[in-house]
Write a structure and sequence with these properties.
By secondary structure, the protein is mainly alpha-helical. Among the domains are: 75 residues, Glutaredoxin; 110 residues, Glutathione S-transferase Yfyf (Class Pi), Chain A, domain 2, CATH 1.20.1050.10. The protein is 50% helix and 6% strand. The N and C termini lie far apart (86 Å).
């Protein structure tokens, strides 16, 4: 066999070996990047607890910036670092300052804890995990907070014909009837995202918490996690502050009124 033919065969075999091993290599999580200093600007009972909890679950270092039981002092510290958008959480990440708890969680996991607190990309659970990561704010928090504010002005006498707070919470209840966690088969960052809006809906009487046994059982598992307990100890050392008032009465549960019939065409 000619030398060129041998060389060509060797190259072909090498290429075959690379392609054969590529799928296995693709499943490996990338190496974690070195994390810059992280400071979490926090207020008790707000979404910033998600970031504290995330860091505790991952065992990553951070600095927690707040004045316990001092809302005015905490707000002043926040405005000093983020006057244009003084919201909790605000995170100083190295030299960068950014907001939005879901984006903060995604950034920290993707860069500094790849393969942790989320299912594998090719897992059947991955789409569920991503859905609940976005559902927590996009569908759930936006609906229950809007209903809470509106119902303070005009208490409802019946549930809405379309999607309202009860329905967005019931969707989560139904899912937990088939899956142990919002990440699917295992605890994930999606569970961290879902706690705040579900607590808001139930503790403020936007929905009847006794109507959702699967969510209550899931919350009991969440609250038993050592990472969650460490977060509570650090993020609420003097308890909650600035509590909102529960609604005096949530709207009665279904059946929902039927949508109005469309006017007949002429």
């Amino acid at each position: 066999m000619k030398r060129t033919a041998v060389a060509g065969l060797a190259l072909a075999l090498a290429a075959t070996a690379v392609f054969a091993t590529a799928p296995a290599q693709a499943q490996r999580a990338p190496a974690a990047a070195k994390m810059p200093p992280v400071t979490i600007y926090h207020l008790e009972g707000r979404r910033s607890e998600r970031i504290v909890w995330l860091m505790e679950e991952l065992g990553l270092p951070y600095t927690l910036e707040f004045k316990p039981a001092d809302m005015a002092g905490t707000a002043a510290s926040l405005r000093a670092i983020n006057p244009a958008m003084p919201v909790f959480p605000t995170v100083k990440y190295g030299d960068q300052v950014f907001v939005e708890s879901g984006a903060i969680i995604d950034t920290i996991i993707s860069r500094h804890a790849p393969g942790k607190l989320e299912p594998a990309l090719n897992s059947p659970d991955y789409p569920y995990h991503r859905m609940w990561m976005h559902y927590a704010e996009g569908s759930l928090a936006s609906r229950v907070i809007a209903d809470y504010r509106v119902w303070q002005i005009q208490p409802p006498t019946a549930r809405a014909a379309l999607v309202d707070s009860e329905q967005v919470v019931q969707f989560a209840e139904d899912y937990l009837g088939k899956h142990p966690w919002f990440g699917g088969s295992q605890f994930s960052a999606a569970d961290i995202m879902m706690v705040f809006p579900l607590n808001f809906a139930m503790q403020l009487n936007v929905v009847d918490k006794n109507q959702f046994p699967k969510i209550n059982a899931w919350k009991a598992k969440i609250e038993a996690r050592p990472g969650y307990q460490r977060m509570i100890a650090k993020a609420r050392p003097k308890g909650m502050i600035g509590n909102l008032n529960p609604l005096p009465k949530h709207a009665p549960p279904g059946p929902r009124p039927a949508p109005a019939a469309a006017a007949p065409k002429r």
